[in-house]
Amino acid sequence: MTAARNSKRKSATMRLREAELLLKVSTLCASLDSLDEVLATLVDITSQEISCQRATLFLNDPQTGELYSRVAQGSLQREIRILNSVGIAGHVFTEGEGLIVSDAYADPRFNKEIDQQTGFKTENILCAPVRTAKGQIIGAMQSLNKIEGQFTEDDLHLLEQITLQASIALESNIFSERMAEKRQQEMEFLGLVADVTAE
Q: Cys-Cys with 111: which of 23, 61, 87, 165 at CB 3.0–4.6 Å?
């Protein structure tokens, strides 16, 4: 009886802690002004809460059919781009289901190229699709190398909840960024037309 009560109390405590974390994620992401800030915040929160060495958030670029990451932990500080069907992230993005990989190099879906570029050795992977509130998949979130032991189903559930909470901020910032790029292109075109007309 006591063991069951303790288990129930522990479960309630874990649910409360998760709810507090998700509220924190939602509030933090809503307060940020740019996509890069949201990405950096999510990567930091994920690596801390999931207790892993690195985290990377890949977003889909529908124009090129690639997943890209502008914010990654570690020494590589440039954008990473892969086809949106390649690697564990590509598999999770296309299939729409989270994945736990206990031995990265033993999994044929694993893309070794990023390890070769970064010098980082991936041992195990936790990856979840990033979905909007309407269920559209816009990317994939990866956690690499669990600090103690292996990734669990609880870790996967938490990662899915974190990405769901952040998806509204991600979606609105992606939209704002694309509109700004479109405006910039239109301004450049109008400038070119004005130059041609003046000549």
A: 87
